[in-house]
Protein backbone atom coordinates (compact mmCIF):
# COMPACT_ATOMS: atom_id res chain seq x y z
CA UNK A 1 0.00 0.00 0.00
CA UNK A 2 1.49 3.32 -1.06
CA UNK A 3 1.72 6.42 1.09
CA UNK A 4 -0.74 8.32 -1.12
CA UNK A 5 -3.51 5.79 -0.47
CA UNK A 6 -2.83 5.91 3.27
CA UNK A 7 -3.13 9.69 3.23
CA UNK A 8 -6.40 9.48 1.25
CA UNK A 9 -7.91 7.03 3.77
CA UNK A 10 -6.93 9.20 6.71
CA UNK A 11 -8.51 12.22 5.02
CA UNK A 12 -11.72 10.27 4.41
CA UNK A 13 -11.80 9.03 8.01
CA UNK A 14 -11.30 12.56 9.33
CA UNK A 15 -14.04 13.79 7.01
CA UNK A 16 -16.45 11.09 8.22
CA UNK A 17 -15.67 11.92 11.84
CA UNK A 18 -16.33 15.59 11.33
CA UNK A 19 -19.69 14.91 9.68
CA UNK A 20 -21.33 12.71 12.28
CA UNK A 21 -19.52 13.44 15.53
CA UNK A 22 -19.06 17.20 15.27
CA UNK A 23 -22.66 17.73 14.18
CA UNK A 24 -23.96 15.52 16.97
CA UNK A 25 -21.93 17.44 19.57
CA UNK A 26 -23.17 20.80 18.35
CA UNK A 27 -26.78 19.60 18.32
CA UNK A 28 -26.46 18.54 21.94
CA UNK A 29 -25.06 21.88 23.11
CA UNK A 30 -27.09 24.25 25.26
CA UNK A 31 -26.68 27.21 22.93
CA UNK A 32 -29.39 27.78 20.35
CA UNK A 33 -26.84 29.35 17.98
CA UNK A 34 -24.74 26.18 17.94
CA UNK A 35 -27.88 24.13 17.25
CA UNK A 36 -28.80 26.30 14.28
CA UNK A 37 -25.25 26.06 12.91
CA UNK A 38 -25.36 22.29 13.30
CA UNK A 39 -28.64 22.08 11.34
CA UNK A 40 -27.14 24.20 8.55
CA UNK A 41 -24.07 21.95 8.33
CA UNK A 42 -26.29 18.89 8.39
CA UNK A 43 -28.30 20.21 5.43
CA UNK A 44 -25.15 20.70 3.38
CA UNK A 45 -23.80 17.28 4.36
CA UNK A 46 -27.06 15.59 3.40
CA UNK A 47 -27.06 17.24 -0.03
CA UNK A 48 -23.47 16.48 -0.98
CA UNK A 49 -22.27 13.52 1.11
CA UNK A 50 -22.97 9.81 1.14
CA UNK A 51 -23.78 8.88 4.74
CA UNK A 52 -23.77 5.37 6.13
CA UNK A 53 -26.28 3.88 8.54
CA UNK A 54 -23.93 4.21 11.53
CA UNK A 55 -23.32 7.87 10.76
CA UNK A 56 -27.04 8.54 10.46
CA UNK A 57 -27.67 6.81 13.80
CA UNK A 58 -25.13 9.09 15.46
CA UNK A 59 -26.68 12.13 13.87
CA UNK A 60 -30.16 11.03 14.93
CA UNK A 61 -29.01 10.62 18.51
CA UNK A 62 -27.85 14.22 18.47
CA UNK A 63 -31.14 15.32 16.88
CA UNK A 64 -33.11 13.37 19.48
CA UNK A 65 -31.31 14.99 22.42
CA UNK A 66 -31.58 18.43 20.81
CA UNK A 67 -35.32 18.06 20.28
CA UNK A 68 -35.74 16.56 23.75
CA UNK A 69 -34.56 19.85 25.30
CA UNK A 70 -36.62 22.06 22.99
CA UNK A 71 -39.38 23.97 24.75
CA UNK A 72 -42.36 26.08 23.63
CA UNK A 73 -44.83 24.87 21.04
CA UNK A 74 -43.88 27.33 18.31
CA UNK A 75 -40.19 26.44 18.54
CA UNK A 76 -40.99 22.72 18.61
CA UNK A 77 -43.08 22.99 15.47
CA UNK A 78 -40.36 24.96 13.68
CA UNK A 79 -37.54 22.60 14.66
CA UNK A 80 -39.56 19.47 13.80
CA UNK A 81 -40.33 20.90 10.36
CA UNK A 82 -36.64 21.60 9.69
CA UNK A 83 -35.65 18.08 10.75
CA UNK A 84 -38.36 16.47 8.60
CA UNK A 85 -37.30 18.50 5.55
CA UNK A 86 -33.92 16.74 5.63
CA UNK A 87 -35.68 13.62 4.33
CA UNK A 88 -36.26 15.14 0.90
CA UNK A 89 -32.75 16.65 0.49
CA UNK A 90 -30.83 13.44 -0.22
CA UNK A 91 -29.62 12.77 -3.75
CA UNK A 92 -30.89 9.21 -3.79
CA UNK A 93 -34.23 8.04 -2.40
CA UNK A 94 -32.51 5.01 -0.85
CA UNK A 95 -30.52 7.37 1.40
CA UNK A 96 -33.77 9.10 2.30
CA UNK A 97 -35.36 5.80 3.29
CA UNK A 98 -32.29 4.98 5.36
CA UNK A 99 -32.67 8.32 7.16
CA UNK A 100 -36.32 7.45 7.98
CA UNK A 101 -35.30 3.99 9.15
CA UNK A 102 -32.68 5.42 11.52
CA UNK A 103 -35.29 7.78 12.95
CA UNK A 104 -37.65 4.94 13.94
CA UNK A 105 -34.75 2.91 15.35
CA UNK A 106 -33.63 5.87 17.48
CA UNK A 107 -37.18 6.60 18.63
CA UNK A 108 -37.67 2.96 19.59
CA UNK A 109 -34.39 2.77 21.52
CA UNK A 110 -35.07 5.95 23.54
CA UNK A 111 -38.87 5.62 23.92
CA UNK A 112 -38.64 4.61 27.57
CA UNK A 113 -36.75 7.83 28.38
CA UNK A 114 -39.61 10.03 27.12
CA UNK A 115 -41.88 11.24 29.91
CA UNK A 116 -45.52 12.26 29.68
CA UNK A 117 -44.63 15.93 29.24
CA UNK A 118 -42.47 15.35 26.15
CA UNK A 119 -44.34 12.55 24.40
CA UNK A 120 -46.57 14.94 22.44
CA UNK A 121 -43.70 16.72 20.71
CA UNK A 122 -42.20 13.39 19.63
CA UNK A 123 -45.61 12.41 18.28
CA UNK A 124 -45.45 15.65 16.31
CA UNK A 125 -41.97 14.83 15.00
CA UNK A 126 -43.05 11.34 13.92
CA UNK A 127 -46.04 12.84 12.08
CA UNK A 128 -43.75 15.23 10.20
CA UNK A 129 -41.33 12.41 9.29
CA UNK A 130 -44.17 10.24 7.94
CA UNK A 131 -45.48 13.20 5.94
CA UNK A 132 -42.02 13.77 4.42
CA UNK A 133 -41.64 10.08 3.58
CA UNK A 134 -44.88 10.23 1.58
CA UNK A 135 -43.54 13.31 -0.18
CA UNK A 136 -40.67 11.14 -1.41
CA UNK A 137 -43.17 8.87 -3.16
CA UNK A 138 -44.70 11.87 -4.88
CA UNK A 139 -41.28 13.32 -5.74
CA UNK A 140 -39.83 10.21 -7.39
CA UNK A 141 -43.07 8.89 -8.86
CA UNK A 142 -42.92 8.62 -12.64
CA UNK A 143 -46.27 9.17 -14.33
CA UNK A 144 -46.92 6.61 -17.10
CA UNK A 145 -47.08 7.88 -20.64
CA UNK A 146 -49.84 7.15 -23.10
CA UNK A 147 -49.96 3.48 -24.00
CA UNK A 148 -47.76 2.41 -21.07
CA UNK A 149 -48.82 0.38 -18.08
CA UNK A 150 -49.60 2.10 -14.82
CA UNK A 151 -47.07 -0.04 -12.94
CA UNK A 152 -43.56 1.16 -13.65
CA UNK A 153 -40.36 -0.54 -12.49
CA UNK A 154 -38.94 2.59 -10.89
CA UNK A 155 -42.22 3.26 -9.11
CA UNK A 156 -42.30 -0.31 -7.81
CA UNK A 157 -38.81 0.09 -6.39
CA UNK A 158 -39.71 3.32 -4.62
CA UNK A 159 -42.84 1.90 -2.99
CA UNK A 160 -41.09 -1.36 -2.13
CA UNK A 161 -38.28 0.57 -0.41
CA UNK A 162 -40.66 2.50 1.85
CA UNK A 163 -42.72 -0.62 2.61
CA UNK A 164 -39.53 -2.43 3.65
CA UNK A 165 -38.61 0.44 6.01
CA UNK A 166 -41.97 0.23 7.78
CA UNK A 167 -41.88 -3.57 7.96
CA UNK A 168 -38.43 -3.60 9.54
CA UNK A 169 -38.99 -0.84 12.09
CA UNK A 170 -42.31 0.49 13.29
CA UNK A 171 -44.47 -2.41 12.03
CA UNK A 172 -42.17 -5.31 12.79
CA UNK A 173 -44.24 -7.95 14.65
CA UNK A 174 -41.17 -10.01 15.55
CA UNK A 175 -39.44 -7.14 17.37
CA UNK A 176 -39.95 -7.86 21.07
CA UNK A 177 -38.64 -4.45 22.15
CA UNK A 178 -41.17 -2.57 20.02
CA UNK A 179 -43.57 -0.53 22.13
CA UNK A 180 -47.19 -0.32 21.04
CA UNK A 181 -47.26 3.44 21.70
CA UNK A 182 -45.41 4.06 18.44
CA UNK A 183 -47.62 1.59 16.57
CA UNK A 184 -50.85 3.12 17.86
CA UNK A 185 -49.85 6.63 16.85
CA UNK A 186 -48.53 5.41 13.50
CA UNK A 187 -51.89 3.79 12.73
CA UNK A 188 -53.72 7.01 13.66
CA UNK A 189 -51.75 9.31 11.36
CA UNK A 190 -51.02 7.00 8.41
CA UNK A 191 -54.03 7.66 6.18
CA UNK A 192 -54.34 11.28 7.28
CA UNK A 193 -50.82 12.19 6.16
CA UNK A 194 -51.11 10.08 3.02
CA UNK A 195 -54.22 12.00 1.96
CA UNK A 196 -52.60 15.36 2.74
CA UNK A 197 -49.79 14.56 0.31
CA UNK A 198 -51.69 12.78 -2.47
CA UNK A 199 -55.20 14.30 -2.09
CA UNK A 200 -56.55 10.84 -2.95
CA UNK A 201 -54.95 10.86 -6.44
CA UNK A 202 -53.23 7.51 -6.03
CA UNK A 203 -53.30 4.34 -8.09
CA UNK A 204 -55.24 1.53 -6.30
CA UNK A 205 -52.38 -0.89 -6.94
CA UNK A 206 -49.85 1.26 -5.07
CA UNK A 207 -52.34 2.06 -2.33
CA UNK A 208 -52.76 -1.67 -1.72
CA UNK A 209 -48.99 -2.11 -1.78
CA UNK A 210 -48.39 0.57 0.82
CA UNK A 211 -50.89 -1.15 3.15
CA UNK A 212 -48.98 -4.46 3.11
CA UNK A 213 -47.00 -3.72 6.34
CA UNK A 214 -50.27 -3.45 8.26
CA UNK A 215 -51.60 -6.73 6.86
CA UNK A 216 -48.33 -8.46 7.77
CA UNK A 217 -48.50 -7.02 11.29
CA UNK A 218 -52.12 -8.17 11.78
CA UNK A 219 -51.33 -11.73 10.78
CA UNK A 220 -48.26 -12.20 13.00
CA UNK A 221 -48.52 -9.82 15.96
CA UNK A 222 -49.56 -10.91 19.45
CA UNK A 223 -50.52 -7.40 20.54
CA UNK A 224 -54.34 -7.34 20.58
CA UNK A 225 -54.53 -3.61 21.31
CA UNK A 226 -52.34 -2.67 18.35
CA UNK A 227 -54.24 -5.04 16.03
CA UNK A 228 -57.60 -3.56 16.97
CA UNK A 229 -56.26 -0.05 16.48
CA UNK A 230 -54.95 -0.89 13.01
CA UNK A 231 -58.28 -2.46 12.08
CA UNK A 232 -60.29 0.56 13.25
CA UNK A 233 -58.06 3.42 12.14
CA UNK A 234 -56.72 2.05 8.85
CA UNK A 235 -58.92 -0.54 7.16
CA UNK A 236 -62.31 0.50 8.56
CA UNK A 237 -61.61 4.07 7.48
CA UNK A 238 -61.01 2.89 3.92
CA UNK A 239 -64.62 1.65 3.91
CA UNK A 240 -66.18 4.62 5.73
CA UNK A 241 -64.36 7.96 5.99
CA UNK A 242 -62.15 7.73 2.89
CA UNK A 243 -64.73 5.99 0.67
CA UNK A 244 -67.54 6.98 -1.67
CA UNK A 245 -70.16 5.55 0.68
CA UNK A 246 -70.42 8.86 2.62
CA UNK A 247 -69.96 7.33 6.05
CA UNK A 248 -67.79 8.32 8.99
CA UNK A 249 -65.99 5.99 11.34
CA UNK A 250 -66.67 6.09 15.06
CA UNK A 251 -63.39 7.90 15.77
CA UNK A 252 -63.72 10.60 13.11
CA UNK A 253 -63.11 14.14 14.34
CA UNK A 254 -64.38 17.06 12.23
CA UNK A 255 -61.63 19.35 11.06
CA UNK A 256 -61.31 22.83 12.44
CA UNK A 257 -61.73 25.88 10.24
CA UNK A 258 -64.16 27.01 7.58
CA UNK A 259 -65.60 24.37 5.26
CA UNK A 260 -66.50 25.48 1.74
CA UNK A 261 -68.94 23.89 -0.66
CA UNK A 262 -66.23 23.39 -3.32
CA UNK A 263 -63.95 21.42 -0.99
CA UNK A 264 -62.91 18.09 -2.46
CA UNK A 265 -64.24 14.99 -0.68
CA UNK A 266 -61.73 12.93 1.27
CA UNK A 267 -61.59 9.57 -0.48
CA UNK A 268 -59.17 7.03 -1.91
CA UNK A 269 -59.73 4.83 -4.93
CA UNK A 270 -59.45 1.46 -3.21
CA UNK A 271 -59.32 -1.98 -4.83
CA UNK A 272 -61.62 -3.72 -2.35
CA UNK A 273 -61.52 -6.97 -4.29
CA UNK A 274 -57.73 -7.20 -4.04
CA UNK A 275 -57.78 -6.42 -0.32
CA UNK A 276 -60.44 -9.08 0.23
CA UNK A 277 -58.26 -11.67 -1.51
CA UNK A 278 -55.20 -10.65 0.51
CA UNK A 279 -57.04 -10.97 3.81
CA UNK A 280 -58.40 -14.37 2.82
CA UNK A 281 -54.94 -15.56 1.79
CA UNK A 282 -53.37 -14.36 5.04
CA UNK A 283 -56.19 -15.78 7.16
CA UNK A 284 -55.77 -19.22 5.59
CA UNK A 285 -51.97 -19.16 5.77
CA UNK A 286 -50.10 -21.48 8.15
CA UNK A 287 -47.88 -18.67 9.43
CA UNK A 288 -50.84 -16.66 10.68
CA UNK A 289 -51.51 -16.85 14.41
CA UNK A 290 -54.71 -18.63 15.41
CA UNK A 291 -55.71 -15.68 17.57
CA UNK A 292 -55.69 -13.33 14.58
CA UNK A 293 -57.56 -15.52 12.08
CA UNK A 294 -60.98 -14.34 13.22
CA UNK A 295 -60.01 -10.71 12.72
CA UNK A 296 -58.58 -11.44 9.28
CA UNK A 297 -61.76 -13.20 8.17
CA UNK A 298 -63.91 -10.34 9.45
CA UNK A 299 -61.81 -7.85 7.47
CA UNK A 300 -62.13 -10.10 4.43
CA UNK A 301 -65.94 -10.03 4.71
CA UNK A 302 -65.93 -6.28 5.27
CA UNK A 303 -63.89 -5.66 2.12
CA UNK A 304 -66.06 -8.08 0.15
CA UNK A 305 -69.23 -6.18 1.10
CA UNK A 306 -67.57 -2.92 0.10
CA UNK A 307 -66.53 -4.49 -3.21
CA UNK A 308 -70.10 -5.57 -4.02
CA UNK A 309 -71.50 -2.16 -3.10
CA UNK A 310 -68.89 -0.47 -5.28
CA UNK A 311 -69.79 -2.73 -8.20
CA UNK A 312 -73.45 -1.75 -7.93
CA UNK A 313 -72.50 1.91 -8.13
CA UNK A 314 -70.30 1.23 -11.17
CA UNK A 315 -73.09 -0.64 -12.96
CA UNK A 316 -75.57 2.15 -12.35
CA UNK A 317 -73.03 4.64 -13.71
CA UNK A 318 -72.28 2.50 -16.77
CA UNK A 319 -75.95 2.54 -17.72
CA UNK A 320 -75.83 6.34 -17.94
CA UNK A 321 -72.30 7.32 -19.03
CA UNK A 322 -69.80 5.86 -21.47
CA UNK A 323 -66.02 5.64 -21.11
CA UNK A 324 -65.55 9.32 -22.04
CA UNK A 325 -68.10 10.49 -19.50
CA UNK A 326 -70.79 11.28 -22.10
CA UNK A 327 -74.41 10.17 -21.94
CA UNK A 328 -75.07 6.89 -23.72
CA UNK A 329 -78.52 7.93 -24.96
CA UNK A 330 -78.99 11.55 -26.05
CA UNK A 331 -82.59 11.17 -24.89
CA UNK A 332 -81.27 10.61 -21.37
CA UNK A 333 -79.50 13.97 -21.49
CA UNK A 334 -82.65 15.66 -22.79
CA UNK A 335 -84.71 14.04 -20.03
CA UNK A 336 -82.30 15.26 -17.36
CA UNK A 337 -82.31 18.78 -18.82
CA UNK A 338 -86.12 18.62 -19.04
CA UNK A 339 -86.34 17.57 -15.41
CA UNK A 340 -84.16 20.53 -14.42
CA UNK A 341 -86.40 22.90 -16.41
CA UNK A 342 -89.51 21.38 -14.81
CA UNK A 343 -88.02 21.93 -11.38
CA UNK A 344 -87.42 25.60 -12.24
CA UNK A 345 -91.00 25.97 -13.55
CA UNK A 346 -92.39 24.25 -10.46
CA UNK A 347 -90.51 26.68 -8.25
CA UNK A 348 -91.99 29.63 -10.17
CA UNK A 349 -95.49 28.11 -9.95
CA UNK A 350 -95.10 27.64 -6.23
CA UNK A 351 -94.20 31.31 -5.85
CA UNK A 352 -97.25 32.34 -7.93
CA UNK A 353 -99.50 30.04 -5.90
CA UNK A 354 -98.24 31.56 -2.69
CA UNK A 355 -98.97 35.08 -4.01
CA UNK A 356 -102.45 33.95 -5.16
CA UNK A 357 -103.18 32.38 -1.80
CA UNK A 358 -102.34 35.66 -0.07
CA UNK A 359 -104.73 37.55 -2.37
CA UNK A 360 -107.49 34.96 -1.83
CA UNK A 361 -107.03 35.24 1.91
CA UNK A 362 -107.55 39.01 1.72
CA UNK A 363 -110.66 38.55 -0.45
CA UNK A 364 -112.05 35.94 1.94
CA UNK A 365 -111.60 38.31 4.86
CA UNK A 366 -113.44 41.10 2.99
CA UNK A 367 -116.18 38.66 1.91
CA UNK A 368 -116.65 37.46 5.47
CA UNK A 369 -117.05 41.04 6.63
CA UNK A 370 -119.74 41.70 3.95
CA UNK A 371 -121.56 38.50 4.87
CA UNK A 372 -121.57 39.49 8.53
CA UNK A 373 -123.08 42.89 7.65
CA UNK A 374 -125.79 41.24 5.52
CA UNK A 375 -126.60 38.79 8.30
CA UNK A 376 -126.95 41.66 10.79
CA UNK A 377 -129.36 43.48 8.44
CA UNK A 378 -131.42 40.34 7.95
CA UNK A 379 -131.60 39.81 11.71
CA UNK A 380 -132.85 43.37 12.19
CA UNK A 381 -135.52 42.91 9.53
CA UNK A 382 -136.51 39.56 11.03
CA UNK A 383 -136.93 41.16 14.47
CA UNK A 384 -139.15 43.84 12.96
CA UNK A 385 -141.35 41.22 11.26
CA UNK A 386 -141.63 39.31 14.53
CA UNK A 387 -142.80 42.47 16.32
CA UNK A 388 -145.50 43.02 13.66
CA UNK A 389 -146.69 39.45 14.09
CA UNK A 390 -146.87 39.94 17.85
CA UNK A 391 -149.02 43.03 17.39
CA UNK A 392 -151.45 41.12 15.17
CA UNK A 393 -151.58 38.34 17.73
CA UNK A 394 -152.39 40.80 20.52
CA UNK A 395 -155.21 42.35 18.46
CA UNK A 396 -156.83 38.94 17.98
CA UNK A 397 -156.74 38.31 21.70
CA UNK A 398 -158.31 41.72 22.49
CA UNK A 399 -161.15 41.05 20.07
CA UNK A 400 -161.91 37.84 21.89
CA UNK A 401 -161.91 39.66 25.25
CA UNK A 402 -164.47 42.29 24.06
CA UNK A 403 -167.34 39.75 24.10
CA UNK A 404 -170.02 41.25 26.50
CA UNK A 405 -170.75 39.24 29.63
CA UNK A 406 -174.38 37.96 30.16
CA UNK A 407 -176.74 39.67 32.60
CA UNK A 408 -177.64 38.44 36.13
CA UNK A 409 -178.05 34.77 35.67
CA UNK A 410 -176.69 31.84 37.52
CA UNK A 411 -175.65 30.22 34.33
CA UNK A 412 -173.28 33.03 33.68
CA UNK A 413 -171.05 31.87 36.50
CA UNK A 414 -170.84 28.53 34.83
CA UNK A 415 -170.05 30.16 31.54
CA UNK A 416 -166.95 31.95 32.84
CA UNK A 417 -164.68 28.96 32.52
CA UNK A 418 -165.93 28.59 28.99
CA UNK A 419 -164.76 32.10 28.24
CA UNK A 420 -161.36 31.20 29.59
CA UNK A 421 -161.23 28.05 27.57
CA UNK A 422 -162.18 29.77 24.33
CA UNK A 423 -158.86 31.53 23.94
CA UNK A 424 -157.09 28.27 24.77
CA UNK A 425 -158.89 26.53 21.92
CA UNK A 426 -157.81 29.25 19.52
CA UNK A 427 -154.19 29.22 20.64
CA UNK A 428 -153.24 26.30 18.42
CA UNK A 429 -154.61 28.23 15.46
CA UNK A 430 -152.43 31.17 16.27
CA UNK A 431 -149.42 28.90 16.87
CA UNK A 432 -149.42 27.98 13.18
CA UNK A 433 -147.59 31.26 12.61
CA UNK A 434 -143.79 31.45 12.51
CA UNK A 435 -141.75 29.99 15.38
CA UNK A 436 -140.59 33.29 16.91
CA UNK A 437 -144.21 33.90 18.06
CA UNK A 438 -144.07 30.91 20.43
CA UNK A 439 -141.73 32.72 22.80
CA UNK A 440 -144.35 35.40 23.64
CA UNK A 441 -147.49 33.17 23.73
CA UNK A 442 -147.20 32.21 27.44
CA UNK A 443 -147.16 35.88 28.49
CA UNK A 444 -150.40 36.96 26.71
CA UNK A 445 -152.82 34.47 28.34
CA UNK A 446 -151.76 35.80 31.76
CA UNK A 447 -153.12 39.22 30.79
CA UNK A 448 -156.47 37.72 29.73
CA UNK A 449 -156.82 35.91 33.05
CA UNK A 450 -156.33 39.09 35.00
CA UNK A 451 -158.88 41.00 32.92
CA UNK A 452 -161.49 38.22 33.19
CA UNK A 453 -161.19 38.14 36.98
CA UNK A 454 -161.65 41.88 37.38
CA UNK A 455 -164.97 42.00 35.50
CA UNK A 456 -166.94 39.71 37.87
CA UNK A 457 -165.65 41.56 40.97
CA UNK A 458 -167.17 44.79 39.73
CA UNK A 459 -170.49 43.11 39.04
CA UNK A 460 -170.68 41.57 42.51
CA UNK A 461 -170.19 44.98 44.15
CA UNK A 462 -173.10 46.37 42.22
Automatic annotation (TrEMBL):
**UniProt KW keywords:** Nucleus, rRNA processing
Where would you say this protein principally sits, based on its record? nucleus
- List the GO biological process terms: rRNA processing
Q: Which stretches does UniProt call biased (Acidic residues)?
A: 333-403
Bias type Basic residues, positions: 451-462
Q: What Gene Ontology terms describe where this protein resides (cellular component)?
A: nucleus; preribosome, small subunit precursor
- Annotated Low complexity bias: 411-450
Could you tell me which residues belong to the region Disordered?
A: 333-462
The record's section on InterPro entries has:
RRP1
Localization per record: Nucleus
Name the Pfam families for this protein: Nop52
Q: Which family does it belong to?
A: Belongs to the RRP1 family.
Task: Please give the PANTHER family that the UniProt record associates with this protein.
Answer: NNP-1 PROTEIN NOVEL NUCLEAR PROTEIN 1 NOP52, RIBOSOMAL RNA PROCESSING 1B
The name of this protein is: Uncharacterized protein
Amino acid sequence: MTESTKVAKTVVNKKERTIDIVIAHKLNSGSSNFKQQALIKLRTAVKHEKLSEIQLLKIWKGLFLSFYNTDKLVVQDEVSTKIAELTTLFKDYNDSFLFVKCFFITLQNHWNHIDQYRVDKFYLLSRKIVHSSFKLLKKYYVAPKEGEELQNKSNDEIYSGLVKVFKDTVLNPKNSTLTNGIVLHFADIYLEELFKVTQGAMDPFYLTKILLPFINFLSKSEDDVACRRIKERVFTRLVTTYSIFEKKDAFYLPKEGIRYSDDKPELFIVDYGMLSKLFFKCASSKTTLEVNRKMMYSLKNQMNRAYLAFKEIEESADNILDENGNYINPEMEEEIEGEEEEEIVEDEDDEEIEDGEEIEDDEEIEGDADIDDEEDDEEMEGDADIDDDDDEFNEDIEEEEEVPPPKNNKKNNNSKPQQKSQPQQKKPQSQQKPQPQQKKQPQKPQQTKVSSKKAPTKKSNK
